[in-house]
Amino acid sequence: MDALRLKLHAELLEEAISRRRLECEDAEWLAQYPALLKAIDDAKSYKVFEPRKLGLDRWEVESNIRQFNDLPNRLIEFEYLLEGREIPSFKKS
């Protein structure tokens, strides 16, 4: 697990949530979701030692965060890294 990269993505996600929380109730909900707040805090403090899941899969599909590009992308990237996976790259053939 790349702790530095995870920290960077935690900070980017935090910024995206902060930017959108007044525009979207679901972003406000994310800003208060305890598991996410702990994961972000742990990532920024280099305290993530093993993969973990946030349990937001169904919520992401049902929420309105997809109306923004930055927030869902940042959330997905952070989740991939938090789960110990690489962020997929989409290369043109």
Model description:
There is one protein chain. By secondary structure, this protein is an all-alpha fold. It has one domain (3-82). 60% of the residues lie in helices and 0% in strands. It has helices at residues 3-20, 25-32, 34-44, 57-62, 70-82. Helix 1 crosses helix 2, helix 1 packs across helix 3 (34-44) and helix 1 (3-20) runs antiparallel to helix 5.
Q: What's the gist of this structure?
A:
The chain is an all-alpha fold and 93 residues long. The chain has 5 helices and no strands.
Q: How are the SSEs ordered, and which strands pair?
A:
Elements: H1 3-20, H2 25-32, H3 34-44, H4 57-62, H5 70-82
Shape: globular
DSSP summary: helix tally:
5
> How large, in whole angstroms, is the Cα Rg?
13 Å
Strand content: under 5%
Uncertain parts:
none
- Could you state the order of secondary-structure elements as H and E? HHHHH
How far apart, in Å, are the first and last alpha carbons?
Answer: 29 Å
Which tags fit this structure?
93 residues; 5 helices; mainly alpha; single chain
